[in-house]
């Protein structure tokens, strides 16, 4: 061979400082000729490692030792598949990145990484999205920034209204939430705008500003939930709250004037209704009283006439039975009735002829008697 030398031993054989046919990664040269560090002896390192394994497994040999170590490593790897889902969370299990199931709270097991993965989102936390404004707080305030392209809407009576509102939502199905919708928050915001515009488009301006706010909120929440269910988004819409409902800023003064005029109109109408409700019942009561008085008078006169007719009939029947007695009794009763109501003067026609008429002034005597009794 061309690299043989007289000392023999291969290309790094004798003649060198190492001598004795060592390989190129042998001991440091003993002489002072070459000098410098040489690479480590990998063969020696492998041999020493095998010897250590043999000492660990004296009866099994190297192959069985490697098998046992592999089994132990695999067992430890499989134990890492246990995971705990806290209350308020859902465990979403992924197999090679594919969603294969959802687990509830508690201790569960799934294949560990890199084969399996578990995502545990919180499903009880209420999230909030602001629409129509941007602010640090939960309520639209004077310091918040208005977003007209989101808040200006057209009502059913062709008026423009400025609405700021918030959408509160939670995760109902973690798997669907993570994998069926790419951007859940932006999807909720855009869908809520669509739902609110549809509801406001069927509502008059005055109703949306006053008594119809609760109805608008509930209808918007129902419609938005229907949209999210159609996407199979795994999202539950808890509530839609309207924070500010006003006319556009440019016409708010004119709108307030119109509102004040309407309030004056309503006040005048209420006063007129109150007067009508006061005067009409009293007039009806007076008319009813007069009708009842007339009926009472009619009944009284009718009864008196019937009594007089019965009395006349009774007197007539008595007259037919005893004419003389009845005639005298009628005469006496008539004279008693007449004389009882007239002033009476008694004259004695059988005087003694002296030309003086005996006179008894009974009315004067009665007046003096009454005057004396009062004193």
Automatic annotation (TrEMBL):
Residues of the signal peptide: none
A Pfam family it matches: HflK_N
Keywords: Hydrolase, Membrane, Protease, Transmembrane, Transmembrane helix
Membrane topology category: Single-pass membrane protein
GO biological process, alphabetically ordered: proteolysis
Glycoprotein keyword on record: no
Gene3D superfamilies from the UniProt entry: Band 7 domain (3.30.479.30)
Subcellular location: Membrane
GO MF annotation, one: peptidase activity
Keyword Membrane: yes
Record-annotated membrane-spanning stretches: 62-83
Protein family per UniProt: Belongs to the band 7/mec-2 family. HflK subfamily.
NCBIfam families the record matches: hflK (TIGR01933)
Role according to the record: HflC and HflK could encode or regulate a protease.
Assembly notes: HflC and HflK may interact to form a multimeric complex.
Name of the molecule in the record: Protein HflK
